[in-house]
Design brief:
The protein is of the alpha+beta class. It has helices at 6-15, 17-21, 25-35, 42-53, 57-70, 78-85, 94-105, 177-188; strands at residues 112-113, 120-123, 127-133, 139-143, 154-156, 165-169. It folds into two domains: 6-70, no CATH class; 78-188. A hairpin with a 3-residue loop joins strand 2 and strand 3.
Length: 191
């Protein structure tokens, strides 16, 4: 069975690190520490691991995370990630996020919300929705479908998270019964 939480995925990547990269996670943290790169700049660490050492992507993320934690960084909680997404000019979009969250979490006890820096994923068997404050005036909801419903509200292509389609919302008033139907379809198709 595949790991389902970010922590379980990180543990799985860490467990096979030596096999895939030639070094254990602890050895990589020491390499980053002695490199002169700021371990708190995870993006720079990942880029360096890729260009200088050819480290695969999932391993880059695990190493950068572990190096930052070793340097004193504390991973934000899911609520802290959300709070950071809806500050300043994007603060007025918070009620849109909250209404989408309320609907999605109401589908069942099997819905798990996770924290990310730029969007909030909702996971069941796999990620089925991701909500992002895309601009100062718009929230985008990435929805993953295996059989997309017909709706003029959906656009195909890149979406927040792992979505196959995007639903854009500018106010709570735009969260209609059709929007709820589209959210529910993504939930049902990813169990």
């Amino acid at each position: 069975m595949k790991p389902t939480s970010p922590e379980a995925m990180m543990a799985a990547v860490s467990a096979s690190m030596k096999e895939r990269t030639g070094h254990t996670l602890e050895e990589w943290v020491a390499v980053v520490d002695s490199s002169g790169i700021d371990p708190l700049d995870q993006k720079a660490v990942r880029r360096w691991l890729k260009t200088e050492h050819g480290v695969p992507q999932n391993s880059q993320w695990a190493i950068a995370d572990a190096a930052a934690v070793a340097a004193g960084w504390q991973r934000p909680t899911t609520e802290e990630y959300i709070d950071r997404q809806y500050v300043g000019p994007k603060e007025p979009l918070r009620p849109v996020f909250e209404r989408v969250r309320e609907i999605v979490q109401g589908f069942g006890d099997d819905v798990r919300m996770e924290g990310r820096a730029t969007y909030t994923p909702f996971v069941r068997g796999r990620q089925f929705a991701a909500v992002a404050a895309a601009t100062r005036s718009r929230v985008d909801v990435g929805l993953r479908y295996t059989d997309p419903p017909t709706s003029e509200l959906l656009t195909t292509g890149k979406a927040p998270g792992q979505g196959t389609h995007t639903l854009s919302l500018r106010s709570v008033d735009e969260i209609t019964a059709e929007v709820e139907r589209l959210l529910r379809a993504a939930y049902d198709q990813n169990g």
